Amino acid sequence: MINNILKHSLHFIILILLQVLIVRNIYLGSFIILFPYILFILFLPIELPKHLVLIFSFLTGVAIDLFYDTAGLHSASCTLIGYLRHFVLKFLSPREGYEDGRTPNSDNMGTVWFITYSGILIFIHHLCFFYLEIFRINEFFTTLLRVILSSIGTFGFIYILQFLFFKSGKQS
Q1: What angle do the packed helices 111-134 and 73-91 form, to 10 degrees?
Q2: Contacts for 83 with CB less than 8 Å, ≥ 6 apart
């Protein structure tokens, strides 16, 4: 139990520092913005209670908001995907259900499952974030293009990160 808490705390710190110190300084144009820190929310244990997922999601967003000075945009987006994560997991649930102690990554759940799971949540996060940021209807299609390109970029980055930072096998 303590080992799992330490492991997830270390993942949280690494991903926040990666976002704030490295990824924030990568410029891929105004249409592609990477948010790999949401990998922390995606990789929370499947059996974690919903209220804890919401709390961890909110705290992750607050941590990024503090560094980016975005006044709650990341908090709102992270809390939304933390809330919807349960429904996405339920929708994608295998017939026999999930094994206890599994982390939702491509090694444990399969590549197609992971692409679907993370793609849905990344897209929802970016949709919420960018539309709250712009908060204008006259730039709807420009913002939608930004959401799509940033989601693809973030997914690619997260897909690579999962292999670099998370070993295969049973995890919690």
Answers
A1: 150
A2: 50, 54, 57
pTM of the complete model: 0.89
Q: Which two tokens stand for residue 65?
A: 């908001």
Question: Is the model's pLDDT at 172 over the cut of 50?
Answer: no
Nearest to 98 by CA among 90, 115, 106: 90
For the segment 166-170, the average pLDDT, to the nearest whole number, is 54
Q: Residue ranges of the domains in the chain?
A: 2-165
The count of residues in the chain is 172
CA distance 135 to 143: 10
Q: In this model, does residue 170 exceed pLDDT 70?
A: no
Q: Spell out the residues 6+ positions from residue 18 whose beta carbon is closer than 8 angstroms to its own.
A: 36, 37
